[in-house]
């Protein structure tokens, strides 16, 4: 059996009696971002809904609806740099805290 793993996907091939079987599996154990859990924790601490957070983000030029915010919080969506800054401003925390959980968040 030959196996190739790249970009979170594993492809395995095996040949038996002239037939080739291909197995593809997606590894979903690594989240797409570092900030999702802390975004959710802070949003809930502030007693904000995802829709209310979307409104705060819009004030900083970041257009994400509650579905995309949920994807960020669940680690299913990547976050680009200006979205990261927008989340920090909207939640009243530092970018460093969002990324690492280190330092005071105020």
* Strand content range: 15-25%
| Low-confidence blocks of residues | 3-7
Looking at the overall shape, the CATH architecture of the largest domain is Orthogonal Bundle
The H-level CATH homologous superfamily of the largest domain, spelled out, is: lambda repressor-like DNA-binding domains
Structural domain count: 2
User: What structural class results from the helix and strand content?
Assistant: alpha+beta
Order of helices and strands: EEEHHHHH
Total number of helices: 5
Instruction: Quote the CATH topology of the largest domain.
Output: 434 Repressor (Amino-terminal Domain)
CATH level 1 class label of the largest domain: Mainly Alpha
Ends apart, CA distance between termini: 53 Å
Evaluate the radius of gyration: 19 Å
Helical residue percent? 40-55%
Largest sheet: 3 strands, antiparallel
Task: Please give the order of strands in the largest beta sheet.
Answer: 1-2-3
Shape: elongated
DSSP strand tally: 3
Let me know the average pLDDT: 84
């Amino acid at each position: 059996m030959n196996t190739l793993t790249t970009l979170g996907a594993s492809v395995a091939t095996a040949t038996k009696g002239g037939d080739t079987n291909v197995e593809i599996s997606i590894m979903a154990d690594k989240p797409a971002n570092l900030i999702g859990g802390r975004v959710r924790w802070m949003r809930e601490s502030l007693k904000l809904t995802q829709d209310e957070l979307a409104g705060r983000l819009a004030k900083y030029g970041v257009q994400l609806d509650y579905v995309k915010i949920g994807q960020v919080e669940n680690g299913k969506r990547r976050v680009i740099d200006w979205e990261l800054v927008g989340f920090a401003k909207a939640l009243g925390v530092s970018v460093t805290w969002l990324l690492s959980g280190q330092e005071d968040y105020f």
